[in-house]
Amino acid sequence: MSSLKQDVVNEIHKPAPGNSLRRLVQVHDLNDLIQADLVEMIPYARENSGYRYILVVINVFSKYVWAEAMKNVPKNCQTDMGKEFHNQMFRKLLADLKINHYSTYSNLKASVVERVNRTLKNLMWKQFSLQGNYKWLALLPKIVHKYNNTRHRTIKMKPSEVNNENELILLDEVYGSNRKVKRNIKAGIFKKGDYVRISKYREAFAKGYTPNWSNEIIIIRKVNYTYPPTYLLADQNGQDIEGYFYRGELQKTLHNDVYLIEKVVRRKGNKLLVKWLGMDSKHNSWIDKTDMV
Fold first, then answer.
1. In what order do the strands lie in the sheet with 261-268?
2. In this model, does residue 271 exceed pLDDT 70?
3. Count of other CB atoms within 10 angstroms of residue 116
4. Residue scoring higher pLDDT (68 or 78)
5. Residue 195 is assigned to a structural domain of this protein
6. Where in this chain does the record put each Integrase catalytic domain (predicted)?
7. Closest CA to 116 of 35, 32, 42
8. Cα gap 101→90, rounded to integer Å
9. Of 1, 131, 144, 280, which alpha carbon lies 20 to 30 A from 289's?
10. What pLDDT shows up at residue 17?
């Protein structure tokens, strides 16, 4: 095996980091931000009168949670052009739910809600074990009430206790500290134009012997000097890749023009039509036989 090929193999099988540093969710007052998500309960619909989903909404500042059982999700959602609807988080929510969003032109992961989903599901599944069944309709309000009336580790009080009177205290003692910490955000970051590989989702590639990094090589198109820094990426055709990425999700490559070949599809003289490892057939391309290493 050539040293170039060995380098590429080492890169794509390099252990992916665990939980890397993420951007803080910034909130400025009690009514600043909510996050919403849908919990699928489809396997248990028969035991719960046909209800298949739980819509969960959390006030990010107070941590107060609302949850509503739903039988189905709508196919369309119409709003005005307000920014409360036309933003990245709302678009992602509707896209995940496969809901078409459109607006009338009149006078334009949510990480916190994902964490609370895990908490609610943990409480729910404990009760399932006690009950010996998966009936959750009557259970849901009790679990949400318990969550809202339990001391929260972050805000050091019950979500139900947060109000306009203690809002400023909470802002200063809990959320204000995030803005006071000075950080060197330019240390050890990638640069615009660097070639990188993207970490594969560990949930989908849980086996340690499978490649942990993309075979496709991506270019850093823009660096956002947030804390921590985030990166906008583009493929080698210049097409932007949706979303921003953290440093822990990227690995700089040693060779930006070396790819692994899965198989030779066709031969024509000194030309080979090859399928690249880890890429679908639309990326198949002709190469010179002499280009193989």
1. 261-268, 271-276, 285-288
2. yes
3. 23
4. 68
5. yes
6. 1-167
7. 35
8. 10
9. 280
10. 65
- The domain in which residue 118 lies consists of 34-162
For residue 44, the domain's CATH number is 3.30.420.10
Tell me the pLDDT tens digit for each residue of 72-99: 876 666 555 556 566 777 777 777 777 7
Q: What is the rounded CA–CA span in Å between residue 75 and residue 100?
A: 6
Q: Are residues 90 and 141 in the same domain?
A: yes
Cβ neighbours of 14 (radius 10 Å): 14
Domain presence at residue 155: yes
Do 213 and 282 lie in one domain? The reply is no
Distance CA 3, CA 107 (A): 63
Query: Is 224 domain-assigned?
Result: yes
Verify that 46 and 154 share a domain, yes or no. Answer: yes
Q: How is residue 33 written in tokens?
A: 């931000």
pLDDT of 135: 92
Which of 192, 197, 243 is closest to 218 using CA atoms? 197
Share of the chain above pLDDT 90, in %: 22
Residue 170 belongs to a domain: no
Q: How is residue 290 written in tokens?
A: 């002499």
Cβ atoms within 10 Å, residue 152: 18
Q: How far apart are CA 230 and CA 248, in angstroms?
A: 10
CB atoms under 10 Å from CB of 265, counted, come to: 13
Instruction: Tell me if 293 sits within 8 A of 1, measured CB to CB.
Output: no
pLDDT digits (tens, 9 = 90+) for 159-195: 999 999 998 888 888 877 555 444 555 556 789 999 9
Q: What is the domain count for the chain?
A: 3
Q: In the numeric block, which tokens belong to residue 196?
A: 């990188």
